[in-house]
Write a structure and sequence with these properties.
The protein has 13 helices and 20 strands. The chain has 415 residues and is α+β, with helices and mostly antiparallel strands. The structure holds flavin-adenine dinucleotide.
Length: 415
């Protein structure tokens, strides 16, 4: 939609083909319905993963966060800044979706919903796009009537495979592949991690500040810190999402993936040991089950005490140094094996997608098929949590819309 609005504003006649019942469906779910549109802290080399070095930087330098904010301001969306995390002033993701649609309609963009694009073919002077109406019996099997569209330029903005109920069912990969683009196998990213062991059933429902370090075959692969969520299947929460794509990739390579959770990330090992000793002296008569009450959620404290072999009913004064040391290890280095990730259904984005070495980062034009542009999550770039994935969609969309319009103008001028 960002591409459509940009191309239409530059004077192009634009048609959007959308197979869901409305455009911008996924946007409605973003940021828990509040839409974390972008982020003022932009370091493309660390905020984007995948692709090839420099690609995300080149794209986000073409269409910056500032230009994106101007783009939305010009449509009537002022924003709210929460420590650099940008939301629409309204606090409603639906207002971003509605505004994009209103602006597209104002500019004369034809938005055709309920049309599944099944094929895009390069023909002389442009493309032939074949779509079938969705919702009709057997529409995906090819029995319903097809509509063919002729156009001079195609912008492929079909998303990835994450949250397919919002429309991104992975069919964009097949369209890109049919046009000669290599697809890096997509995997869930920004997703919950499933851990081995029944212990997590006891921990379900706990939220606590902590650090997470991910290891692949024993080597550190990623780390983050923030509010951890412990669930009956494993771990979730923003820091887990941030490291999850590395778990996905390592698991797909058959590597052994483990995590180490640090429940006291503000303390070093030595500080934790000293803290526990002081606490034992200070709270000498307190029963084991409440020794960590006030430091951690009580349920978590009890589980860690038990793992360290400490009685939950004896007073703290009798905890031997050796067990206090084991408790420190549980607090600073609670380990679990990752057996998998939750599925694409639960993932916020996916990693993998159309290889970016076949796309020009200055225009988003395909290097394989002139006149074809690729944007957003369809590409082999995934952002961290915090508005970076939508910024990727805006930057690539605006860039593609602008480049397609410019190249069309040049072609028309040459004729
Ligand atoms: C629950 C959730 C919360 C999120 N929150 C945030 C957030 O707060 N901030 C952030 O930055 N990112 C967030 N994201 C990620 C972000 O929404 C996506 O990265 C972004 O929407 C990708 O944009 P896109 O245009 O590439 O693809 P999409 O938004 O997926 O759009 C692709 C469109 O193409 C249509 N389509 C696909 N194939 C076809 C076809 N063959 N024919 C016709 N139409 C087709 C789809 O129906 C869809 O409308 C969130 C994602 C989820 C799932």
């Amino acid at each position: 939609m960002a591409a459509a609005v940009t191309a239409a504003a530059a004077g192009c006649r634009v048609t959007v083909l959308e197979h869901r019942e409305r455009a911008c469906k996924k946007l409605l779910a973003t940021g828990n319905g509040r839409c974390n549109m972008t982020n003022l802290h932009m370091d493309p080399e660390t905020c984007y993963r995948g692709g090839i070095p420099g690609f995300a930087s080149a794209v986000t330098a073409q269409v910056t966060v500032g230009e994106t904010l101007d783009f939305f301001a010009s449509m009537g969306i002022p924003v709210r800044n929460r420590d650099g995390y940008i939301y629409p002033r309204s606090g409603q993701a639906s207002s971003v979706a509605d505004t994009l649609i209103l602006e597209a309609e104002r500019l004369g963009v034809r938005i055709c919903c309920g049309l599944h694009v099944r094929a895009v073919e390069k023909v002389k002077d442009g493309f032939s796009v074949t779509a079938v109406r969705t919702g009709e019996p057997s529409s995906r099997e090819g029995k319903s009537p097809e509509t063919a569209y002729s156009c001079r330029r195609v912008i492929l903005s079909a998303g990835g495979k994450a949250a397919p109920s919002s429309g991104s069912d992975g069919s964009g990969y097949e369209l890109a592949r049919s046009l000669g683009h290599r697809i890096i196998p997509p995997l869930p990213a920004l997703v919950q991690l499933v851990c081995r062991g029944k212990l997590f059933r006891q921990l379900a429902g706990i939220r606590t500040e902590g650090g997470v370090t991910l290891f692949a075959d024993g080597a550190p692969a990623a780390e983050d810190r923030g509010e951890l969520q412990l669930t009956e299947y494993g771990i979730s929460g923003i820091p887990v999402f941030q490291v999850s794509r590395f778990a996905s990739v390592s698991l797909s390579k058959g590597q052994k993936v483990t995590v180490r959770l640090d429940f006291l990330p503000e303390f070093t090992e030595e500080e934790t040991a000293a803290f526990l000793k002081t606490r034992r002296a200070q709270l000498a008569s307190r029963e084991g089950q409440d020794f960590l009450t006030g430091v951690l959620p009580r349920k978590l404290g009890c589980v860690l005490m038990s793992l360290a072999g400490i009685s939950l009913s004896d007073p703290a004064s009798v905890i031997p140094d050796r067990k206090l040391e084991l408790l420190k290890e549980q607090l600073k280095g609670f380990s679990a094996e990752i057996t998998g990730t939750k599925s694409f259904d639960q993932a916020q984005v996916c990693c993998g997608g159309a290889a970016v070495d076949q796309v020009d980062p200055l225009t988003m034009e395909s290097l394989e098929v002139p006149g074809l542009y690729l944007t957003g999550e369809l590409l082999d770039i995934d952002g961290i949590c915090g508005g970076y994935n939508l910024q990727w969609a805006w930057s690539t969309g605006i860039s593609a819309g602008r480049s397609a319009a410019n190249s069309l103008k040049r072609t028309v001028a040459d004729q």
